[in-house]
Amino acid sequence: MNEYPYPLKIRAVWWKEESRETCWINTLKLPFHEEITCSSDPGRIAKAIIDMEIRGAPAIGVAAALGIASYAYTITNKPLEEYTRLLIDAINLLWNTRPTAHNLFWALKRMKQKLHSGLEETTDTVKLAEKLEEEALAIMDEDIRANIKLGEYGAELVPDNSTILTHCNAGALATAAFGTAEGVMRAAWYRGKKIRVIATETRPVLQGARLTVWELVREGIPVTLITDNMAGYVIRKGLVDLVIVGADRVTREGYVVNKIGTYMIALAAKRKGIPFYVAAPTSTIDLESSIDDVVIEERNPDEVRKVLGHPITLPDVPALNYAFDITDPDLVTAIITEKGVIHPPYPENIPRILEH
Ligand code: MRU
């Protein structure tokens, strides 16, 4: 019996009970190979996040938390002082993998707090590892429940017989399960709404073409692929009723940091007068930073000079590779969270919903 109200057909990261390892599906290999890796080594998990085997804001937060718990079990024979230091080093290592998604820092802060509160209660390293496991599993479970809940809130906003445009992959493959933007699509679909999805391919890493398409086809939701530069025209042509995307970070002012290309889609949606929704759990909302404090990740320019590893230009031409962009609050119709749908004005309504 599934303990969640919907089937979780796709998992991006999970806990392997028998070996207490962190497992993930290597999203770099999809849709061609379903390769699963399990590890307790924070170095390996950090590499998986940097290389984007594991990607998507909630998924990297969950993977980092599970990774700390897995690692804790492998070092229980160490003296307490060394055990604590090794765990703090592992937290720092994972902290420095990718700079933009808020969920990573949110999850690692929780793990650090759990370690500190645990140390006040016990000096037994096995008991401490159990406490860290409990916290990591709670982070994973909360992510799944948040996605389902926000999916249900969001489904109310999706008209029957409508076409949704999405960008990148904010699906089960970007979270512990169920997805945020795709969570809304799933909830609408499970309620019997007829929806169609237009997915952008999402250069340079192709999360839309490789992951969103794979995920939606598995779910049976009709999906049509477009190149990123078609988004404006399909919106102008009236082929899109609403846009739903995920977020890597939402600031207290309501700025949305998401996959590069999101901003252009938001501008086109505004111009055409169709809703532009952002689906994100509250773990993505950063009340502390203002938009100027957010670090936009710049990745290896080779990702731009190549497609799936194949060169498409001169090998040494300068290339920019910003992984994310910023969408202004006035372009965002509403932010769909597990605590409810947040409407403008965001500086007042975002903190209000977080207090609930
Ligand atoms: O670089 P990625 O693939 O980690 O970027 C992912 C996105 O931009 C997603 O839209 C975002 O993390 C939300 S995932 C629910």
SSE layout and pairings?
Layout: E1 13-16, E2 21-25, E3 36-39, H1 42-51, H2 57-74, H3 80-95, H4 102-121, H5 125-155, E4 162-166, H6 181-190, E5 195-200, H7 207-219, E6 223-226, H8 231-236, E7 242-245, E8 249-251, E9 256-259, H9 262-272, E10 276-279, E11 285-286, H10 302-305, E12 306-307, E13 310-311, E14 324-327, E15 334-337, E16 340-342, H11 346-355
Parallel strand pairs: 4-5, 4-7, 5-6, 7-10, 8-11, 10-15
Antiparallel strand pairs: 1-2, 2-3, 8-9, 9-14, 12-13, 15-16
Helix pairs in contact: 1-2, 1-3, 2-3, 2-4, 2-5, 3-4, 4-5, 5-6
The structure holds 5-S-methyl-1-O-phosphono-5-thio-D-ribulose.
5-S-methyl-1-O-phosphono-5-thio-D-ribulose (MRU) binds next to helix 2 and strand 9.
Describe the protein.
The protein has two domains: 13-148, translation initiation factor eif-2b, domain 1 (Four Helix Bundle (Hemerythrin (Met), subunit A), Up-down Bundle), CATH 1.20.120; 157-354, Translation initiation factor eif-2b, domain 2 (Rossmann fold, 3-Layer(aba) Sandwich). It has eleven helices and 16 strands. The protein has helices spanning 42-51, 57-74, 80-95, 102-121, 125-155, 181-190, 207-219, 231-236, 262-272, 302-305, 346-355, and strands at residues 13-16, 21-25, 36-39, 162-166, 195-200, 223-226, 242-245, 249-251, 256-259, 276-279, 285-286, 306-307, 310-311, 324-327, 334-337, 340-342. The strands form four sheets. Strands 6-5-4-7-10-15-16 form a seven-stranded mixed β-sheet. Strands 11-8-9-14 form a four-stranded mixed β-sheet, with helices on one face. The longest helix has 31 residues, at 125-155. It is globular. Bound molecules: 5-S-methyl-1-O-phosphono-5-thio-D-ribulose (MRU).
